[in-house]
Design brief:
There is one protein chain. By secondary structure, the protein is α/β, with parallel strands linked by helices. The protein has a 5-stranded parallel beta sheet with strand order 2-3-1-4-5, with helices on both faces. Helix 2 packs parallel to helix 11, helix 6 packs antiparallel against helix 7 and helix 6 crosses helix 10. The longest helix is centred in the first third of the chain and has 25 residues. The chain binds adenosine monophosphate and magnesium ion. Adenosine monophosphate (AMP) binds next to helix 6.
């Protein structure tokens, strides 16, 4: 049976209309999925412990998606499986003046996970191909060059022992409207709303095209993209937990074997 990661993995040219945001491949019942997810969260906890002890490999999880697609929700509900000591979360916003004065990977490379650790990118270097595409800030040749730079950069991370998992949270335009309306209606969520969300929503079709191009050009063997159907929050959380668990299990981090003179050490403790 195909794993969730295999089912959602991008291969070849992406057309988003071929990917249904309401789909739930590999899971049909929300309660059973929640149960399987909890088991996976426990495995993540154990595998991260081993990753830290091993101290050689690292894990980078890249979250991308339209506004309200659930990047923050995932961080709250799934990424909490990681021990905060050994996991950094990096939200990437519009570049500051200092960031903008450097090459676009400067702030990104700085945030890449050191050996033994996990890093989660809430938005990423992909903003640097998406936003220029949508707002026509760069020509197609310059954007093409950035895809190449990104692929090379990710290959370099992989070579160093960093596993790169890229997740596109795919919601429908209709679902986004519901979530933005809910944001406006809910006194506790209202602060999250910005008029900027509406102007970006107006560019929905261009964002789709920008994502199609980036997912097509930058899904590689060393850093594959996954398209996670995200209209159903339960499925989104379930699928991401499954993909992360599988990746960590494949990395197979091993606690270093210690050859200690146990009897002598214990005798000293018991003295
Ligand atoms: P949020 O994730 O809702 O807090 O919003 C962050 C905003 O920063 C989004 O509108 C992103 O498109 C924007 N952003 C992040 N990185 C970049 C970038 N490299 N270039 C332009 N805009 C960016
Ligand atoms: Mg936002």
């Amino acid at each position: 049976m195909k794993s969730i990661a295999q089912r959602l993995r991008v291969r070849g040219r992406v057309r988003l209309r071929d990917w249904d945001p309401r789909d739930t491949p590999g899971a049909s019942d929300p309660d059973r999925a929640a149960k399987r997810m909890r088991t996976n969260l426990e495995r993540i906890d154990d595998l991260q412990y081993r990753l830290h002890a091993e101290g050689r490999q690292s894990l980078l999880i890249v979250l991308q998606g339209m506004d309200t697609s659930g990047k923050d929700g995932l961080i709250r509900h799934v990424m909490t499986a990681f021990n905060p000591q050994g996991c950094n979360i990096w939200p990437f916003k519009v570049p500051t003046a200092e960031e903008a004065a450097h090459d676009f990977l400067w702030r990104i490379h700085h945030a890449a996970p050191p050996a033994g650790e996990v890093a989660i990118f809430n938005r990423s270097h992909y903003e640097d191909v998406l936003v220029p595409y949508v707002h026509r800030l760069l020509g197609s040749g310059e954007i093409e060059e950035r895809y190449r730079i990104i692929n090379r950069f990710e290959a370099q991370l992989a070579e160093r022992g960093t596993r790169v998992i890229k997740l596109f949270l795919h919601i429908s335009r209709k679902e986004q409207r519901e979530r933005l309306l809910a944001r406006l209606d809910h006194p506790l969520k209202r602060w999250k709303f910005s008029e900027h969300d509406l102007s970006e929503r107006a560019s929905w079709r261009r964002y789709e095209r920008a994502y199609e191009a980036a997912l097509t050009r930058c899904s590689t063997d060393h850093a594959p993209w996954h398209i996670v159907p995200a209209d159903h929050k339960w499925y989104r959380d379930f699928a991401v937990a499954a993909i992360v668990t599988d990746a960590l299990a494949e990395m197979d981090p091993r606690v270093p074997k210690m050859r200690l003179p146990l009897a002598r050490l214990k005798a000293r403790l018991l003295r």
